[in-house]
Amino acid sequence: MERMKSITILIADDEAEISDLIELHLEKEGYRCIKVSNGLEAVSVVQTHSVDLAILDIMMPKMNGYDATRQIRAQHHLPIIFLSAKATDLDKITGLVNGADDYMTKPFNPMELVARVNAQLRRSTQLNQPATANKSVLEAGGLIIYPEQRTVSLYGETIEITPKEFDILYLLASHPKKVFSAENIFQQVWGDAYYEGSNTVMVHIRTLRKKLGEDIHKNKLIKTVWGVGYTFNG
Predict the structure, then answer these.
(1) Measured CA distances, 179 to 47, 145, 173, 226 (Å)
(2) Which of 11, 37, 40, 223 could potentially form a cystine with 233 if both were Cys, beta carbons 3.0 to 4.6 Å apart?
(3) What would the pLDDT profile of 16-27 be if each residue is shown by its tens digit?
(4) CB–CB of 91/68 below 8 Å?
(5) Other Cβ atoms within 10 Å of 127 Cβ, number
(6) Is 212 helix (H, G, I), strand (E, B) or coil?
(7) pTM for the full model?
(8) Do 33 and 26 touch, CB atoms closer than 8 A?
(9) Structural domains of the chain in order of their starting residue, each with its CATH number
């Protein structure tokens, strides 16, 4: 299907052969690509161009992918996919915790990467539809969720959470006491088929709980229903 040329994808990798391969396959889909070779350039491009999605290597010169993601996330909500040779489960979890929406390991299948790019862009488009602004502000136990601004505050202090963490929290808080399975959360938040999504959801729930200070306040806003899934307990 022909894509609009206005969709711009940032590719940040210090291996030119990999960047060229990704660009080749994405341009076949009709996307416009901007290629850089380090994290500093990646941050600069996002600040000066209209970028719809970023594909970042982790081990890059001048600034690594983790630090680049943190700087990008401070002002922008575009989807970010890590593409890295770091392939252990801990590496993947670290990538997701540091703000990535998806994580692929090298060597990779270019067509799978394209499919994941398409899925992330579909999800991003849905979230930015005008209807999003009509969602209600949610309040529970000192927690306030602002869907239009996509921000969260707890006891008057803003909580820094990633886009996916926000989506999970809003989904659960919008349906208090309803139990969502990991599969259902993955399908609704990631907008894609459920593939190895259980650990991904678990990691995001774990980091979300930590940011909400559940160990300190003992409020347990997100409750685990063992063998079933998760529910909002506000």
Answers:
(1) 39, 19, 11, 10
(2) 223
(3) 999 999 999 999
(4) no
(5) 19
(6) coil
(7) 0.69
(8) yes
(9) 8-127 (3.40.50.2300), 132-232 (1.10.10.10)
